[in-house]
UniProtKB/TrEMBL annotation:
Pfam families: PGM1_C_vert_fung (PF24947), PGM_PMM_I (PF02878), PGM_PMM_II (PF02879), PGM_PMM_III (PF02880). GO terms for biological process: carbohydrate metabolic process. It comes from Cottoperca gobio (Frogmouth). Keywords: Cytoplasm, Magnesium, Metal-binding, Phosphoprotein. It comes from the Eukaryota. It is found in: Cytoplasm. Residues 19-160, 198-303, 323-424 form the Alpha-D-phosphohexomutase alpha/beta/alpha domain. PROSITE patterns: PGM_PMM (PS00710). The gene is LOC115022492. This is Phosphoglucomutase-1-like isoform X1. Transmembrane segments: none annotated. One of its GO terms (cellular component) is cytosol. The lineage of its organism: Eukaryota, Metazoa, Chordata, Craniata, Vertebrata.
Amino acid sequence: MDNSPLQVLTVPTAPYSDQRPGTNGLRKKVYVFQSRRNYLHNFIQSIFSSIDLRDRQGSTVVVGGDGRFFNRTATEVIVQMAAANGVGRMIIGHHGIMSTPAISCVIRKYKAIGGIILTASHNPGGPDGDFGIKFNTANGGPAKEAVTNKIFQISRTIEEFAICPGLQVDLTTLGKQMFDLENKFKPFTVEIVDSVESYANLLRNIFDFAALKELLSGEDHIKIRLDAMHGVVGPYVSRILCEELGCPANSAINCVPLEDFGGQHPDPNLTYAADLVDSMRDGQYDFGAAFDGDGDRNMILGKHGFFLTPPDSVAVIADNIFCIPYFQHTGVRGFARSMPTSAALDRVAKATKIELYETPTGWKFFGNLMDAGRLSLCGEESFGTGGDHIREKDGLWAVLAWLSILAARRQSVEDILKDHWLKYGRNYFTRYDYENVDIDAACEMMEDLEIMIADKSFVKQRFAVEDKIYQVEKADNFEYTDPVDGSISRNQGLRIIFSDGSRIIYRLSGTGSTGATVRIYIDSYEKEQIFEDSQVMLAPLATIALKISQLHHRTGRSGPSVIT
């Protein structure tokens, strides 16, 4: 056996112009990473080069992914490049798999300089699907814009990358592996860790597991149904909910992570989690939940498939926050929501006199507030909810938060939500997604729309649909000044706000790998008519939103791909 030090190579390369990280990292079709020479290597080198060499030397970096196709190949390359770039230790999830919330937890626990997350979140997997790479910094959260801009600039001018091609890591065996590299005084260490344990231990210190166990497996237990959608959360659900908290094993379905997510779209909404919705309809289950590919998103359902919108979910958690022991100890520093998310949380914040922050879409904005000690609970309408225990949205945390509320109140999801509406009124909310729209057509539509709403004559305009009249009170392109560091984020979404507080919001999403996704968000507050059908109540505003944007005409689409 050859025990000589492993060789570090510097390999010439040529840059690509399309490696700008979006809201959630770099996402492309798998074939892009496979077919373009050094495409993966260029981006990974750009990440390492964005970190000062003095900070890199001997540092710890965490790597994990959602198990999608190309995950293992990318992990092996990242390890070889990390060693060549001076990293001292890599911590990797068993088989290269670790949920996004768990990676955030492990980065913070081991004081790593950051982590590389291999996921395209809720996008499809498999050889014909999507692949993604996201860099999280030392706080455990997504890299800020200054960092992602730096990565992009390096990727545009890169001429070479460093790699240790002879380094072969075994992802299947737990424990430490040591490698001697030429011209390195200390061996390079790879530690393969149990993907669940550190994260499970964090949750044990947040929630009352004894109360949850009584709710889920005690004498008067509820029946639940959890769908991991063949994503990364399966092993976490099996270990934490079933083995530790006592749920029957058949409560959890699709818990084996698959490279193609079983041919399904691992997106926890009413469209793509239809199997869960159908299984809830007959009333045999009291509570249902689905998770996305990398485990940071969640959808919650009550008995008979009663749908809980993400904005309502975070508002109810906020109103019942002391059902969670963690917040009894830490207190509540602030609430936050992304701008497109309905204002349901605002009403709880006002009633409880707790500061409310409205941020652009992207968890990094919440992380900055958390790091400054200003934020405890936050949520996005895109099925993301979380607390300040980590710096990512956290699907399993949200489910345990809701189960904690059920354990304390001993009411159904539906009754808890209806009580909330009676107390605060109801924000009817929906989102229309138009996926894979021609990018040029989408951008032109947004530009023309911005010109229209920026005209002074647009304010005070009245729109009538049936017997409803809406008058524009304010219209702008949302801009956010971070209260912590003063940084300004512009062009975060077009807003039309009406005199009754109703809102129409238009955004181009940055989470897809091909084409553009145009999103229309509609939010309308009602104090009296709180038990009506959401789509019926929002139909007048939806008509106005389409009329103003001429979206169907401009994009050639007759209707949305997904309605949530």
